[in-house]
Specification:
Elements (H helix, E strand, L loop, with lengths): L7 E6 L2 E6 L9 H16 L5 E6 L3 E3 L4 H6 L5 H7 L1 H10 L4 E5 L2 E3 L1 H8 L2 E5 L3 E3 L13 H9 L1 H10 L3 E2 H7 L4 E3 L4 H13 L3 H15 L3 H16 L2 H12 L8
Parallel strand pairs: 2-3, 3-5, 4-6, 5-7, 6-8, 7-10
Antiparallel strand pairs: 1-2, 8-9
Helix pairs in contact: 1-4, 3-11, 4-5, 6-7
């Protein structure tokens, strides 16, 4: 990757806009990549030629979520302020875009990236992909709508288990739980996703958008309130000693040592 290569790539073909997160090695989100992703979805909403969107990551990872080193550099960061300008509006953009959005999970997905993937309408995963909730591993709480979308898809009990234990969810297990719609061999992922997207792009996109509105009203009517509350409690969690120890342990690649 050269310094001039964009952190988000876009390509348009047969009515399908492909948005690719492009920040090796693990496509971790920094401010630049979040803002570029927001801009790509904004453009998708404005362009009538876009009839379906694919969201994927470059390389072998969808996204590891927030870049922890960026957070570490900003000791006095307000998590509420950060979420209100980054992931919260991006999740709302995805849900309000009146075209089908497919997350193409080409590898690991964790933290805020999990919320973004779950906000998409559909998910197709490589058989090598895996999901990790991630937040509690560094003393934080689920944000980016994970606290709403994960229980909505797999139930409160399972969501609590995966959040508390940080246990990885493999592709086939994710399929059985209903976290993804399809699992295909890794070598076939991009072509399978493209074919699915082209098929949807040839359908009644206006009706898809109205159906998406109805789903949002019926199931996610409190989305924006939940996002706001997540930002509030994340600010509390982010100022506690548990988070500082969690981040330090992550950076030092050791188990965190929490105390009462």
């Amino acid at each position: 990757m050269t310094t001039s290569e964009p952190v988000v790539l876009t390509a348009m073909e047969e009515g399908v806009l492909t948005i690719t997160l492009n920040r090796p090695k693990v496509n971790a989100f920094n401010i630049e990549m979040i803002e570029a992703t927001q801009a790509a979805f904004k453009q998708a909403g404005r362009d009538p030629q876009v009839r379906c969107v694919l969201l994927t990551g470059s390389g072998a990872v969808f996204s590891a979520g927030q870049d922890i080193t960026e957070v570490k550099r900003e000791e006095d960061i307000s998590f509420r302020y950060h979420l209100l300008r980054t992931y919260n509006p991006l999740v709302v953009q995805i849900r309000q875009l009146e075209r089908p959005v497919i997350a193409v999970l080409n590898g690991a997905v964790s933290g805020a990236a999990l919320g973004i993937a779950l906000a998409c309408d559909l998910r197709i995963a490589a058989d090598t992909a895996r999901m990790v909730v991630g937040f509690l591993g560094i003393g934080l709480v689920p944000d980016s709508a994970v606290s709403l979308l994960l229980p909505a898809l797999i139930g409160l009990g399972r969501a609590s288990e995966y959040a508390f234990t940080n246990a990885p969810i493999g592709a086939e297990q994710a399929l059985a739980l209903g976290l993804v719609n399809r699992v295909v061999p890794a070598a076939e992922l991009q072509e399978s996703a493209r074919q699915w997207a082209v098929s949807l792009a040839q359908g009644p996109v206006g009706a898809y958008g109205l159906a998406k509105r109805a789903f949002n009203k019926a199931v996610l009517g409190n989305l924006e309130q939940v996002l706001d509350y997540e930002a509030h409690i994340q600010d509390i969690a982010g100022r506690r000693a548990e988070h500082k120890e969690g981040v330090q342990a992550f950076l030092e690649k050791r188990p965190a040592r929490y105390s009462a």
